[in-house]
Amino acid sequence: MHEAREELIGKGIPLTGLLKDFSDGWIFGCPSKYWQTLLIRMMCLVNNNRVTVKYYAQQLKEYHGLETVEPVRTLNFNKNGLKLINQQPTYLPNTYKLLWDFFIHLEQKQVLQRTGDREFSKLLPCGYKYRAIKPKSYS
After folding, report:
1. Rounded CA separation 28/67 (Å)
2. Where are the chain's structural domains?
3. pLDDT 10s per residue in the chain (139 long)?
4. Which of 11, 28, 56, 75 maximizes the CB count within 10 A of its CB?
5. Which helix (H) or strand (E) element contains residue 32?
6. Number of neighbours of residue 94 by Cβ within 10 angstroms
7. DSSP per-residue codes, the chain
8. Chain centroid to CA 87
9. pTM for the model
10. Nearest to 98 by CA among 59, 64, 68, 55
11. How many helices (H) and strands (E) does the chain have?
12. Residue 38: helix, strand or coil by DSSP?
């Protein structure tokens, strides 16, 4: 995560203001600022300009081992347990909603632009353009 953060900053993509503090804290088995940093870097590396929840949920799992299903299973188990004892479950986050909320946040920060009902396009350098940016030297 630290390498991804340093790479983004070195290439002129400051994370200040881009990361969102989700009240749920840890999702996908790691703190929000970690998976968000990895996700932003991944969006920069992927040569496709299209951004969808399904694609990037799969990418987080495949390339970073961030399980996007198991936490939801566990939360649903807890939800069903609460119903058994006649307690109302509180809002339970799910992968789709969480990533969608983050993409909306990035749209507000002018990093993404909505292009359809369920997809966005990137407004930051991505793919070959991102890789071609020479990192700034901080020595």
Report:
1. 5
2. 2-132
3. 789 999 999 999 989 889 998 765 556 667 788 889 999 999 999 999 999 998 998 888 888 877 654 444 455 556 666 666 666 655 555 667 788 889 999 999 999 999 988 899 999 999 999 999 998 765 4
4. 28
5. helix 32-45
6. 16
7. -HHHHHHHHHTT---TTTS---TT-EETTEEHHHHHHHHHHHHHH-S--EE-HHHHHHHHHHHH---SSHHHHHHHHHHHHHHHTT--------HHHHHHHHHHHHHHTTSEEE-SSS-EEE-S--THHHHHSPPPP--
8. 31
9. 0.78
10. 68
11. 6, 5
12. helix
* Distances 72 to 55, 75, 135, 139 between C-alpha atoms, Å: 18, 5, 38, 44
C-alpha pair distances (Å), 44 with each of 24, 28, 76: 26, 20, 33
Strands of 120-122's sheet, edge to edge?
A: 50-51, 120-122, 112-114
Phi, psi of 43 (to 5 degrees): -65, -35
Please give the Cα distance from 99 to 122 (Å, whole number).
Answer: 15
CB 75: neighbour CB atoms within 10 A?
Answer: 15
The torsion defined by the Cα of 81, 82, 83 and 86, in degrees rounded to 10, comes to 130
Which pair of tokens denotes residue 99? 């990533």
